[in-house]
Amino acid sequence: MQVHLPEPTAAAPITGDPLGSCSARRALAGFFVSGVLLSFLGVILFSWQHHLTSQYGIVGLYYGGLIAGLVGSARFAPALLRRKGLGWTLALACGLAGAAFLYLAFVSPPFSPWWRVAGMAVVGFAAGLLHSAIFHAISPMYRHDPAATVNLAGILFGAGCFTLAILISGTFYLYTAAAVQVWIAVIPALFGWMYWKTPFPAQPAPTLPVRREMLSELRSTGAVLLSLLLFFQLGNEWALSGWLALFLNQRLGISPPSALGMLALYWLALTVGRAASQWILPRARHGRLLLATVTAAMFGCIILGATDNKFGAITGVLLVGGAFAPIYPLLTEMIGHRFPYYHPGLYNGIFSLAMAGGLLTPALMGYIASIYGLHMIMLLPLVGSVIVFVLLLLIWLESRLRAHSSPPASSAHSA
């Protein structure tokens, strides 16, 4: 299952060094803020006292608000980009995120959870705006070097998640929940100031080109399988990141700071693994690597579900985090190979919808935990890993059948 990255198209020539563009580099750094926004729920549940109650369904409502905001931003982002430009939209997204964190600092328990659901909807809306602007701003970088851009984005995203988990873990007993959330609000505020002061090139959001080749590929069996694979893999990653700390606290009796430290370890393994995958991918057969990582992820989920001690929990966290690391870069590479008609709006739509779909898993886990108990938490990522394994086999079979049915290039030219 060897895949290749799409080549830059002749319609968008690359001049200079896009990777050296100050505005593009600063826009790419926005994935750090994205990691902070989307991992916030997984680390704040202790501060919102959810380890003291069994009302896990409320956590599902929080994720529902986050998903609603993320999806709802898709309606407004293109118009903002056309009318206000990249810098203004990036600054607005960071400003909204900072304001949402400040708002959430003042509606912590004992306030009604619906106030926090509304705040999470604003966080999701800010994340969606941020993604739209970032993908438009870094499109020259992606066309110049897709693999490096995707890996850097993943590393920055994971660094944001890791930083937030470490911050909450280190300050859990030092500051109140409100004070901690005020400190978190400073992060997007600083990025918003940076974007406000950064001059971005005037490039309004282009309209999405509708091509016969694109529509044909979107209807193909391979496209459906790849979309399902991305959906379930992101669901696996966010299922663990959203519930791992609470699961370890309730099941093994680990203190909230230590449980958050293990969540930080998960993000560290995921981030370091994605950095290492940039060296591994050109040297390994991608099909075998995918099968090996999915198998290791399944084994790690089994360890986490069965362990009764801290050593087993650390082993499972490291195994799952390291196994998940190369899967997303490989998936984006496969999608780029099947969809060479790159367009930043299309790629942002795929990313945002896949992210929103992935967040459905931790939302669903809240209702499962409220009915069957928190011990069922590890069941969904385990089942999801099995589904990813099956989808990989189907994609391999589909690619073999596709290659077999397509005539060789020489015979096609002679015909």
Query: Mind telling me the CATH class?
Result: Mainly Alpha
Q: Mind telling me which CATH architecture this is?
A: Up-down Bundle
- Note the beta-strand portion: under 5%
Radius of gyration: 21 Å
Helix/strand order, N-terminal first: HHHHHHHHHHHHHHHHHH
CATH fold title: Growth Hormone, Chain: A
Helix content: over 70%
Structural class comes to mainly alpha
The description of the largest β-sheet is: none
Inertia-based shape:
globular
Ranges with pLDDT <50 over ≥5 residues?
Answer: 1-20, 204-211, 409-415
Total strands: the figure is: 0
The N- and C-terminal alpha carbons lie at a distance of 28 Å
- Estimate the mean pLDDT confidence: 81
Domain unit count: 1
Name given to the CATH homologous superfamily: MFS general substrate transporter like domains
> What is the number of helical segments per DSSP (H or I, 4+ residues)?
18
Query: What is the quaternary state of this protein?
Result: single chain
Compact overview of the structure:
By secondary structure, the protein is mainly α.
Description:
With 415 residues, the chain is mainly alpha-helical. It has one domain (22-201, 212-403): MFS general substrate transporter like domains (Growth Hormone, Chain: A, Up-down Bundle), CATH 1.20.1250. The protein has 18 helices and no strands. The protein has helices at 22-28, 30-44, 57-72, 77-84, 86-105, 113-137, 139-144, 146-171, 177-197, 212-218, 221-252, 256-280, 286-306, 310-324, 327-338, 344-372, 379-405, 409-414. α5 runs antiparallel to α6, α11 packs antiparallel against α15 (327-338) and α11 crosses α16 (344-372). The radius of gyration is 21 Å and the shape is globular. Residues 1-20, 204-211 and 409-415 have low confidence and may be disordered.
